[in-house]
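User: My advisor, Dr. K., asked me to get a structural model of this assembly before our group meeting. I'm new to this, so sorry if the format is off. These are the inputs:
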Amino acid sequence: MALATEWTRAVVAGASPRAAGLRRRLRRARELPLLPLTILVPFVLIAVFAGVIAPYDPTEPIPGAKIFEPPFWMPGANPDALLGTDFQGRDVLSRLIFGARVSLIVGVTGTIVAGSIGTTLGILAGYLGGWVDQVIMRVTDAWLALPALVFAIFLATMVGPSMWNIVIILGAVYWTRYARVIRGEVLSLREREFIKLAEIAGASRLRVIRRHVLPNVLNSAMVLASLTIGVVIIAEASLSFLGVGVPPPEPAWGSMLADGRSMLMVGDWWLTVFPGLGIMMVVLATQLFGDWLRVRLDPQLRNL
Amino acid sequence: MASFVIRRTLYAVVTLLILSLTIFTVVRLTGDPVTLMAEPGARAEDLDRIRVEWGLDRPLPVQYLSFLKNIATGELGNSFNYEMPVSTLYFQRLPNSLELALAATLISFVIGIPAGMISAVKVNTPWDSAGKVIALFGLAVPGFWLGLVMILVFSVWLGWLPTSGQGGWQNLIMPAVALGWYFAASLLRLTRSSMLEVMGSEYIKLARLKGLPGYVVVALHAFKNALIPVLTLAGVNLVVMINAAVIIEVIFAWPGIGRLLYEGIFQRDFPLVQGVVMEAGIMIVVVNLMIDILYAYIDPRIRLTK
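Assistant: The format is fine. Below is the predicted structure of the whole assembly, which you can bring to the meeting.
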């Protein structure tokens, strides 16, 4: 009995079994995923230090440069614009560098918004059950009924384009997956001993959620987040491509693709190939990183 | 069975009600949809005229009820620019979107299912790794960028295929690959995991114990059962492709539903945008409901649990 009380106290104090696991497992992760990190680390550095690295202002034409100049190794190139210029004579390289920043900001913050909404609603639905669960899950179903991109296009059209609007819109579209997965986890968590004991010991619902439920679903939320970033980056590029995303003259990879489209027909391939390669490499790296994280943190999620 | 069908149908109706409420709210979220429709700098009288014409001067609950009525009658309101019911426009474009979506489904089958099967049968071999690489690229390469690169290579450089428009199979092949690409990857993943699950089951072990050759076990016993979830996903994918091919249809000037939505955005035709989105939601919810009921019909375990 005394032992049981001791345990109860420890549990109520917040030492739930899987909570400490996250840190321990990350520490044990000696074999870091090299391929994704060799892409992601430079990407983040480029995005953060865009202002220092970029040779030109991405929104202004290079003084004296012509429009649609090819990259440096092609005939007729301008040695001042390494990767050529776009339809306004702006430096493609500088726009790519600042575009990385837009992708990073929208990808990360959009994922955080989606993850926060989805995790919160998933926990509330799973833990409180009853009508709260019904309402949240019916809304989730309804929002999942629309193809994510169509929903995002619709919201962006109605709310109007700006980078932060896009972040909120993508967060509002992509939270549903978190809500589903987290709710499922909480449902089984709710039946576990340490949660029951915490409840019996008189911990309030809020306390149980904060100290016992949340730490135990964070693993899954992080795995989902790592896999969502790529999706969000592609969604932002899609919206920007359609002209309802990050508004010009701000350089986003999606709008650069749209700008380059008219010159595709005459074979000016660099305006199309470079931004697309950027998107592809970053999404590839986040996916690989997400897969690595999934195996590290939660083998149960392997089939997600 | 009857109670299952009734319950599921009620869920679907609730889902559509929430969806309609969401769409209705979003359109009015930024204040006044009239400012979205009118030309910039329109005079106040013009705004008022539009407001009365579209019933936007009425109280919100009344507006919502008339929105619901438009959904119930199947007309989804009138397009601002085309001056005809959105549903008419939607169903005019539907055959084109269906054509593209079917072609894309075919592409995703041809790539996804064999690759997924090979990955599962040769699990943890270089074949499996190759399958994983395909699946990864399917997720990481945006379909619309693939479309642009294909235009560059096959139309501009090689001159083999037309860049856009609708016509023979030559027009269809690039948009179908660009659209089906992502879905091929998802089919690959599902075929692989579904095959792996079936291959580990008792009856496959029995088939092997009976001494049947490996390819017979795979082709006749495992594949048939592994196919059920794969075909379900393909069904859901088809409906999504019909409604969500916006960028691909824009790039290839394909006159489908996605392009209709795009035109609606740029002509500030908010009844059209709202109607197309609602119609897409209805179509997807109805197809999901039909799949659920079909499943319950085939497999009694589904209708008995929950």
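One thing worth pointing out at the meeting: The CA atoms of residues 191 and 227 of chain B lie 7 Å apart.

User: Perfect, thanks a lot.
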